[in-house]
Amino acid sequence: MTEAQPHQPFGALDISAVIVMNLMWGLNLIAVKMGVDLVQPMTAAWLRQAMVMLICLPALRVVPGKMRELIGLGLLSGTIFYIFVNWSLAVSDNVPALAIAGQLGAPFSLILAVLVLDERIHKYRLIGMALAFAGVVVLVFDPAAVDEELGIAITAAGSVVWAVCSLIQRRLKGVPVLTIYAWIGLIGTLCLLPVAWVAEPEAVRGIPDLPMSSLSWILFSALGSTVLGQGAMSFLLQRHPVSTVVPLTLVTPVISVAAAAWWFGSIITPVMIVGGIMVLVGVAIVTIRTAHAREIEGQA
Fold first, then answer.
1. How would you label 6-29 residue by residue, b for 16+ Cβ within 10 Å and e otherwise?
2. pTM metric for this prediction
3. Per-block average pLDDT, block size 10, for the chain (300 residues)?
4. Tally: H helices and E strands in the chain
């Protein structure tokens, strides 16, 4: 994929893509939580991947030299990641707390880049990483999240998986987004069906009787978050530098926390606000500095 000119101005179409991307990703947490509560976690995960597969199926094709990465991404991103995400939401009520903890993917990704890719890390990203982890520690001691330790721990585990997936995706440069998600959907569908069948046999057997209102939440995740959200991100990356686009995604967790608190009536405590600000500032530092570093690397 050819890198766009770094000073290309944002037009109306670009701004629309940014809004769509952040709204779809920000509201997705509500849709996933509703799907988990209405359908059961593993069954909802399987249905989502089945929908993603069907939506992206026309783009499914063998990509020579990239199949190992695509299969690995399907196993991790399409299967294990969604087991963690749906499981964490099934055992938690404080969705905003999970939305904040879920931002650990960026510092975990940086840690893996250092360990696996020998990427150099300087003081600013170290500070950002430490701040993000400290913010989650503060969150754990919030009285409003006293019963959410398991959910936060599972969310953190899912963030590690997300970080591994981000490294794999860096090796898929040039592969169309829909092709990537077609493989993720296909492998996720095949792997999650036996998991759902063993864990939730009644829920799987009851799929034909599910009301459209329940399925619509899962469809929103499949179509809105995966296809429209990722599609908007891909569109922006084809027109603008990574260092310009990636920081724009920092609006997503703010939308997630605010929307989840409003929809589920969750209490936003002062401790949660402090912890959330620490996490978001830390993630912002890591994200912006990492995007800038990759921009320089790409121009070298």
1. eeeeeeeebeebbebbbbbbbbbb
2. 0.82
3. 51 87 91 92 95 94 94 94 93 85 80 75 79 80 74 90 85 87 95 96 93 92 87 79 72 86 84 84 77 60
4. 15, 0
- d(CA 101, CA 154) in angstroms, rounded, equals 10
Is 205 in a helix, a strand, or coil? helix
DSSP 175: S
**d(C-alpha 9, C-alpha 174), whole Å:** 24
What whole-number distance in Å separates Cα of residue 293 and Cα of residue 249? 17
**Amino acid present at 291:** A
> Which are the contacts of 74, defined by CB distance < 8 A and separation ≥ 6?
183, 184, 186, 187, 188, 191
CB 145 within 8 A of CB 267: no
Q: Please provide the size of the chain in residues.
A: 300
DSSP state for residue 293 in the 8-state scheme: H
Report whether 96 contacts 266 (CB < 8 A). yes
Would you state the structure tokens that stand for residue 230, as one six-digit string?
A: 């990722």
